[in-house]
Amino acid sequence: MTRNPSWLAALAASALFITAGCTENPADSKPAAKVETPAKAEAPAAAAAAAAGVATGVATGVATTGVAAATGAAAAADGSLALTGDIIFVGSKVSGNHACKFTDWTGKAKVTGDDVTTAKISFTVNTNGIQADYEAPSKWSPKLEEHLRSDDFFSSEAHPTATFTSTGIVPKAGEGTTHEVTGTLTIKGIAKTITFPATIAAEGGQFKAKAEFSINRKDFKIEYPGKPDDLIRDDVLLKLNLKS
Question: Which end of the chain is least crowded, N or C, by CB within 10 Å?
Answer without folding.
Answer: N
